[in-house]
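HUMAN: Would you supply a protein with C-alpha cells?

ASSISTANT:
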Amino acid sequence: MIAPAELEEFSAAVREHLFGHYLPFWCGPALDRENGGWMAWLANDLKPDRSQPKGLIVNARILWAFSAVHRVRPEPVFAAMAERAFEFVMNKFWDAQHGGAFWRLNDAGNVMDNSKKVYGQAFYIYALTEFYRAFGHPAALARSKELFELIERHAHDEKFGGYLEVCQRDWSPAGADARLSEKDMNEKKSMNNQLHVLEAYTNLHRIWREPRVATRLRELIDIFLTRILDARTRHLHHFFDEQWHVRSDTYTFGHDIEASWLLCEAAEELGAAEVLARVRNVSLPMAETVFKEGLSVDGGLFYEGRAGQIIDAGRECWPQAEALVGFLNAYKLSGDKKFVAAARRVWHFSQQNLVDRVHGEWFWRVNPDGQPDQQLPKVSEWKGPYHVTRSCLETLRRLQALSEKLTH
C-alpha cells in the first residue's frame, strides 16, 4: 500500500509548484501589456520577438488553463486572467464572416493565416467549454455549439470516419498543403487531430448532452482502438490517408501516454460500460509500453521511437506532464505501485531539469546531453500553460481520490 504521508507530500509539492511558481509566470511576465492578451514569443531569458505570430492554439490553451484553475481555486486573479483570455479569443480570433477561428494573428492582432485547421477549432471548443464550466457564460456555450456544427458539416468524413486536417477560410476543402505544422506529414488525417477533437468533445459533452456529440465520441474511440492504435506494439500511428492506411512509422511516447488517459476520460464521460471496458483493456497496456520503452534511467520520458528503438532521446516538457497523469491513471486501473513510483520519478526529473528557477515556467526541452535547449523559446504559439497546468490539476485530483480511498 501507498502511505498517506507519501500522497500528502507529493500533493503539497505539486500544489506549491503550480500556484507558487508556474501560474505567476502566466499572470505576469507572459502578459502582453502593449497589444493585449499574452506575448507571442519569449526567449528563455524573456526577451520578446514581436515578429512572431500570436497563435490560436496557445491562446485557447491559456483560456482553458485559467478557467480550469478557477474551477478548483476561485480567486480574483484567475478570474481576471480567464476573462482576459476569453475576450481575446472571442474578439480577435473569431471569423465573423464564415464562422470558426483564425489560425494566426500578427503581434498587433491582425489576421495572418485565416485557414480553419480543425486541431485549432477543437482547442477553441475545449477552452470555451471549460470557461463555461467555470463561469456559466452563455456566449461560451453558444459559440461551442456553433463550432461543433461547423466542424461536423465541413470536416467530418462521413464515408471513412474521423476528421480531416484543414479547411480554407470559407470551410471549403484545403488545397495541396494539409499540414498542421512544418514538422508534420502532408496527409489527410492525423492521430493528433483526432485526439484533440476527442478531448474537446468530451468537455463539450459535459455541458451539452447532445446525442450527436456522444455519437462522435463513440466513433472517435472506435477509430483509436481499431485504426490508430497498433495492436501489436501498443503505440499510436501518427499519419494516415483518407481511408486510414498508415503513412508513418514513428511514435511519440508523450502522445501514447496522453491518449491512454484521455481515452479513459472520454469513455467515462460517455458512461457506456462496454465502451469503458474496451478502452481500459488497451489503456493499461499502452501505459505499460511507455513505462517499459520510454522512461529513461533518470526518470524523464524520451520523445520519439521507431521499431522499438529510441530515435529522439530529448525530454520535452509536455510529455513529462502527460506521463504524470498517465501513470497515475495506470495505477488507478491496475493497483500496481510501480506506476505511482514512475509518476514520482517523472515529477522529480521535471523539477530538477525542466523547471526554470531563474525566469519561471519550464524549459521546452532537455537535450540528450542533459542540458536545456536554449534555442527553443519559453513562450510561443506552441508553448503555453496547458499541459503543465492540467497535469498538476489532474495529479492533485487523483492523489486526493487515492488519499480518500485509503482513509475510508
Q: What stands out?
A: Residues 4-407 form a domain with the Glycosyltransferase fold (CATH 1.50.10.10). The mean pLDDT is 96. The longest helix spans residues 4-27. Residues 275 and 406 are 28 Å apart (CA to CA).
